[in-house]
Design brief:
It comes from Castellaniella ginsengisoli. This is DUF4230 domain-containing protein. Keywords: Membrane, Transmembrane, Transmembrane helix. Helix content is 77%, strand content 0%. By secondary structure, the chain is an all-alpha fold. The chain has one domain. Helix 1 packs antiparallel against helix 5 and helix 2 runs antiparallel to helix 5. The longest helix is centred in the first third of the chain and has 49 residues. It is elongated. It starts with a helix and ends with a helix.
C-alpha cells in the first residue's frame, strides 16, 4: 500500500487548518489590541478631565465648608455628555482582552459610573443634615480616588500587555530567562 498520498493529504490538511488558526489568532490579537488602546485613551481622558476640573479638591473644599459652617449648598456636577462611549459600545467584547486588563477596566468604569450617578443627581444631598452631607461628600471623594487609581492600574496593565515588545520577542525573553535559570541551577 502506498502511504504517500494519505500522508500528503493529512499534512496538507494540518497546514491548512494551522494556517487558518494562525490567521484567526492574529486577527483576534489585533482586535484585542485595538480595543485595549481605545479604552486606554478613554480612561486617560477621563482621568485628565477629573484632574483639570479638580473634582477631588472641590469635594474636599465642600467638606471643609460644611464642617466649618454646619450648612451646605447643593453640590452636583451637571454632566451632560456620555463619558464612557467606547466602554459602553464595546462592553460585550471585553472578553477578548486579557483577564487582568478586563478586571481593571470593569472596576474602573463601575467606580466612575457610581461617582457620576451620585454627583450628577441634583437631589443627592437634599434632605440631609450637615453630618450626612459630609459623609456623602467623603464617600464620593473616596469612590472618585478609587476610580482614578483603578484607571491608572488599567492603563499600566494595557501598556504592559498590548504595548510591550511583540509576542515573539516576549517568548524569546521568557525562553532566555528559562535557560538562564536552568544554567544557574545546573552550576550549583
Amino acid at each position: 500500500m502506498n502511504w504517500i498520498p494519505l500522508i500528503s493529504a493529512i499534512v496538507g490538511g494540518v497546514i491548512a487548518i494551522g494556517g487558518n488558526l494562525t490567521i484567526e489568532w492574529f486577527r483576534h490579537r489585533r482586535r484585542a489590541k485595538s480595543l485595549a488602546l481605545a479604552l486606554r485613551g478613554e480612561i486617560n481622558a477621563i482621568i485628565e478631565v477629573v484632574e483639570i476640573r479638580r473634582y477631588a479638591e472641590l469635594l474636599s473644599e465642600g467638606i471643609g465648608i460644611v464642617v466649618a459652617t454646619k450648612k451646605h449648598q447643593l453640590w452636583h456636577l451637571p454632566a451632560k455628555s456620555r463619558y464612557f462611549i467606547i466602554y459602553e459600545e464595546n462592553a460585550s467584547d471585553l472578553g477578548i482582552l486579557s483577564s487582568d486588563v478586563t478586571e481593571h477596566i470593569a472596576r474602573t468604569y463601575a467606580l466612575a459610573k457610581s461617582f457620576l450617578d451620585d454627583v450628577t443627581n441634583p437631589n443627592w444631598l437634599s434632605n440631609k443634615g450637615p453630618d450626612e452631607v459630609v459623609h456623602a461628600l467623603e464617600e464620593a471623594k473616596q469612590v472618585l480616588l478609587l476610580a482614578i487609581e483603578s484607571g491608572q492600574r488599567a492603563i499600566s496593565e494595557i501598556e504592559a500587555t498590548y504595548m510591550g515588545p511583540p509576542w515573539w520577542r516576549r517568548m524569546w525573553i521568557r525562553l532566555e530567562k528559562g535557560l538562564q535559570t536552568i544554567r544557574q541551577r545546573s552550576s550549583w
